[in-house]
Amino acid sequence: PPPMIIFGIDAASVNFEDLRAGQSSDAKPVRLTNSGNVNLQISTTMSNSDGLFQEGLFLDNSLWSSYQTNLDANFAKNVNLILRVPSNYSSTGSKTGMRIFWAASR
Predict the structure, then answer these.
(1) Considering just the CA atoms, what is the radius of gyration of the chain in Å?
(2) Helix (H) or strand (E) holding 51
(3) SS3 of residue 54 by DSSP
(4) How does DSSP classify residue 63?
(5) Is residue 11 very low, low, confident or very high in pLDDT (cuts 50, 70, 90)?
(6) What residues have CB less than 8 Å from 103, skipping those under 6 apart?
């Protein structure tokens, strides 16, 4: 069969609840699934995201901007998202951000 990338994520949104400066959220698992027949390298970017997420969003203990993982064909695994609010963070209110997962054959 021809190579096919079929990549999915099971969480459309993640709520980190109320956090104060210096606090970290509980881990929020997101399931990544490769239903295709090609081994994948997964990375992530952000779009229209508050600075809080730029500075404090971690995926499996890596800052989102340096996160990469491999996902073999017909395999799934959980990735834990944690939001770490910097101790000097002073903004208040609800914050939003969009993370985008990218899948490329490897």
Answers:
(1) 15
(2) helix 51-56
(3) helix
(4) E
(5) confident
(6) 5, 7, 34, 40, 41, 42, 71
DSSP state of 85: -
31, 78 Cβ separation under 8 angstroms: yes
Structure tokens at 65: 């901007």
End-to-end CA distance of the chain: give it in Å, rounded: 17
CB 33 within 8 A of CB 8: yes
User: Do residues 69 and 100 touch, judged by C-beta distance below 8 A?
Assistant: no
Q: Are 25 and 17 in contact (CB under 8 A)?
A: yes
- Is residue 102 helix, strand or coil? strand
Q: Is the dihedral of CA 78, 17, 94, 82 positive or negative?
A: negative
The overall average pLDDT reported for the chain is 94
For 12, phi then psi, to 5°, come to -75, -30
What pLDDT is stored for residue 94 in this prediction?
A: 92
